[in-house]
Write a structure and sequence with these properties.
The complex is a heterodimer. Chain A is of the alpha+beta class. In chain A, 27% of the residues lie in helices and 26% in strands. By secondary structure, chain B is an alpha+beta fold. Chain B has a five-stranded antiparallel sheet with strand order 4-5-10-6-7. Chain B has a four-stranded antiparallel sheet with strand order 11-12-13-14, with helices on both faces. In chain B, strands 1-3-2 form a three-stranded parallel sheet, with helices on one face. Classes of the chains: A alpha+beta, B alpha+beta.
Amino acid sequence: MATRWLGAPIKRNEDPRLLVGQGLFVDDVQLPGMLHAAVLRSPHAHARIRRIDVRRALEHPDVLLVLTHGDLPPSLREPLPKLIPHPDLKHHKTQYALAPDKVRHVGEPVAFVVATSRYAAEDALELVEVDYEPLPAVVDLEEAAAGRPALVHEDIGTNVAAHSVQRVGDYEAARARADLVVARRFVVDRGCASPIETRGVVAQWDPRARQLTVWDSTQAPIPIRNGLAALFGLAQKDVRVIAPDVGGGFGPKIMMFYPEEVLVPLAAMRLGRPVKWIEDRREHFVATNHERTQIHDAEIALDREGRILGVRTVFLHDAGAYIPYGLIVPIVAECTLPGPYRIPNYHAEFRAVFTNKTIVSPYRGAGRPHGVFVMERLLDLAARELGMDRAEIRRRNFIQPHEFPYDVGLIYQDNAPLVYDSGNYPAALERALEEVGYCRWPEEKARYRAQGRRVGLGFACYVEGSGIGPYEGCRVTVEPSGKVYVATGVGTQGQGHATSLAQVVAEALGVDVGDVHVVTGDTGAFGWGTGTFASRAAVVAGSAVHLAAQAVRQKALQVAASLLEASPEDLELADGRVRVRGAPSRSVSLGEVARAANPLRGVIPAEWEGPGLEATRYFAPPRGTFSHGVHAALVEVDPETATLRFLRYVVVHDCGTVLNPLILDGQIHGGVAQGIGGSFFERLVYDDSGQLLSGSFMDFHIPTAVEIPEVEVIHQETPSPLNPIGAKGAGEGGVIPVPALLAQAIEDALDDLELEILRMPLHPDALFELIQKASRRTP
Amino acid sequence: MKPPVFDYQDPASVEEALELLARHGAAAKVLAGGQSLMPLLNLRLARPEVVVDINRIDALDYLTEESGWLRVGARVRQRRLEREAEVRRMVPLLTEAVRFVGHPQIRNRGTVCGSLAHADPAAELPAVAVAVGARLVARSRSGVREIPAEEFFTGPLTTALRPDELLAEARFPCTGPDWGWAFLEVSNRHGDYALCAVAAGVRAGDGRIQDARLAYAGAGPVPVRLREAEAALVEHSDLEEGIRAASAEARRVLQPDGDLHASSEFRRHLAAVLTARTVRLAWTRARTRSGGAHA
């Protein structure tokens, strides 16, 4: 009997190595003669550069190179590539490797210094003289949209980069016949991902082989390789980009390019010595992409039974100083907003606006938490107005299990129609409500209240778009040792691919999962692919791994059939061997099969399609697949100190076929922690001059184990019909509904106050103000 | 985040350290646990010419009781305050408050005297020092002087220490038998500097408060002792009336600055709320204590 690996809660293959400190992160790369770089960054949010004088820095005895914009080759003096164009993106402004004549956010690179140590490089930064002419900073999003107080990019005559409208049905007509319309303004402020490993790049140039090797803490090593080859005029085969162990990505580690990703290789090629740059945390706060500020003016129209007739959201999206990543975040926000509900008429309209702040690109959730916050809040408010139970209003609007595939009517971030493939939304809600004790909640709540405690129950539903194309690939090789080697183009930033992908292979080949070695993120090992983002690795790469492993399985059966003089149909793979079913003594090890498939003499049959036990396969999904879930929590509020404590946190999560429930639980736990952080603790606060006030972990409060509750995870499995393993993405579900849930829970805990939570993240000071301003609700 | 160039000295004796401080004066900075100085160096916000590391000076590593005072040498780590049962018996407020200082990793390195000398107005240990009436022993080549805690803190990150002086020891008076103490803090996240923290002590007798101490962190430029609020507690024979009056005093007198984490109004509100909570807790402990240590 073969062990069933797929779906088994096994511990991670990569952990022993990581736990004893044997990982290889970019900063662990030590090369002979290596130099160290530091970046001079703009201290101003908005300023013209009148003059840069680097002479004193160059005189520093330990300095080898100082670069400013004028020192760059022509290909690097231009704005860096436009990553994802969109027809509505009229002004696709992208960042520079080094600022030419103007800086547009605090932290924008102005000069690049290479020295014998990081200490000396930082000393030399102080010797570069830059004469700035400060300009009015564009900080407030609404002001920015109106072109005030300045233009971030003068040449386009506006701060509005894009204006985009998507419509389903006719919202105005729906509104005209509605019994109730609820309209509010919702604000979600900036945040950032804060991976434990900041960014980092090491580059080495071999002038004899004309080979460039780059170690980069990126989520997308293959596009980085392709881009570097183009910028430096090299063949793609002569550039190798390795994303070794990466200490968390969460989205911002895909840019193509962050300036340092081209400056470090350039310096290594100029100097003929390896160069290392490791971002420090202070840099990270201003130089690695942020996410989130959106202001939504939204409304919902319903009939008196609580059925949704239509929803409208008109919102501003803060792009930051440049918009290399295009419109992904606002598009994901507007496409996530409808969630699990039938919304026959929907009007979504946004403007993406330049401000003098750090660039915005997707961060775990990538607009999804915004959309869910708006939708769930609208439903909560509508239920209150209608005097209806908040669970009931959701039940009345759910898309039902028999309605799949369900066409939402929008165009998603992959430019394909937004069509939900499968799911069971009502079941997930009922399970979550049952688990958290919703039906007896009024009595429970009263019991807490009698003890003088304010406890609220909150829940929120979401649908998570995941697993988009275009494709990923994989090569599976069985070596004569019997060990299996798997190479794929997606990188790994802690998701456990060395285990979950190995499980897919072990399942197909009947080998021990410990004998499957997975290499990810090294363009020298596998050169085709796009990257790890949008909760797609398990779905797209996982399916490619499955296809390649199945192909190897077929070949193993073929080759073994001739060795065992049996028909392939009578063979089975188990315990690393191919056996004749019912005659276990007649068997051969997979290693022996691999050897036989690569003979030194003789003939390889045509049907083997080449030597060896090896296959490469690609998977290109027709469109994205849609996970979903419900979070429910009990939150205690201390109204006197405006602080919170989570008493329980339950997640019902459906991402189709589960590859490894242990890893999946970890993904969800981490997501919930990040969601709680971004809802109550972490804040990026700017002053009027565009200075970031919370740019260190002293002021940007990532919650710790003290603040984060134990998260109870319940898996519901509705497989996707769109891929061979039935998987859906799981990377973002932990974070998406947290702001909506927290708002509902706090309002429930303080339900004797007229208090509406319309802005996230909250924090004690803001909650205090809400409580102070709230009047007592008349029963 | 690498420090600029500085000279590093690690004397093995107090005398050598004082010699170095006398020689370099304001150009020198003392390094003990490094939990505040190292970030300041790495952020290039502090640029001393000389760092005088006192970690090799074994003579400063003592925690002893002497005639009713707990003496804490300059090299004693904060972690020892929470681990040693004797500290809890002598100055229970220290044991309770030190758990709010950062995290165990920070307390394993950070020193008691270092936190006092750093004088962050939102830090816990300075508020405790002010509450219990600690005395801070400053040594220099020209002699020794004892500075009452309330005179020691002169402004944010500023103390009465002269540039040639080393804070060699902190002395905390041991608690009296009828006293109960409590320390509560509100911060956005456990281990951060306080949005507001209150240290309270009350002496119980004849069923009412006979004497009281109230000190506040995060409520002004220095840790503040509020005699008006203390007096209110003693004046009222009814506990809750006294608490209401003391909280009102706290709200009236304290003038904390607002920042990105809390407005001035929120901090004053917290000061009032925590006044009530700490006093109630301290009162319960004073009545149940009868000279023994409380949990």
